[in-house]
Design a protein that fits this description.
6-stranded parallel sheet, 54% strand, single chain, globular, 11-stranded parallel sheet, 4% helix, mainly beta
Length: 175
Amino acid sequence: LRVPDDHATIQAAVDAATPGDLVLVAPGTYGEAVTVETDELTIRGLDRNEVILDGGFTLDNGIRVVGADGVAIENMTARNYTKNGFFWTGVEGYRGSYLTAYRIGDYGLYAFDSTKGLLEHSYASGSPDAGFYIGQCYPCDAVIDDVVSEYNGLGYSGTNSGGDLYIVNSTFRFN
C-alpha cells in the first residue's frame, strides 16, 4: 500500500491494510497522528530524513500502535508531537528501526506494557522525558541496539521493566 499513490495519508493506508501488508511511505511531510490496530504490519518510509511526520505541536503521537502484535515501523522521522514520536502499547512483538524522533513532548521511542521488541539504529533528541523507553514489562524480552539518545531529560527510562532487557552498542549523552 503506497502513500500517497494508493492512499492519500498514512492513516488511510493503515486502515486499508490487512495482516502481513507493507505500507510504503514516499518522501514528504505528513501532518497526522497515526493509530495502528492491525497485527503484523510494516510501515516503512522510503527515506528516513525525508519521510517526516510532523505533529505541529498540537497532535499527540506520530505513530501509536495499540494492541497490534508484530508491527514494525522503519526509516522515518517524527517531530513536534505533544506526547510520543513512535509508541507501542499492549503488544507482543514490535520493532522500530532507523527512526528519528526530535522535539517530542514525552518520549521519542516508547514501548509500554509490550514484550518481545527491538529498537535499533535510531536517534532521539529533545524530549523532556526520555529519548527511549521500554517499561511496564517483566520479562520484557527486548533489545535496544545501536541508538543515539541526546539532549533529552533522560536518555533511557525503564520504569517497572526487566527480564531479558538489553541495551547494547548505544550512545547516551547530554541527557
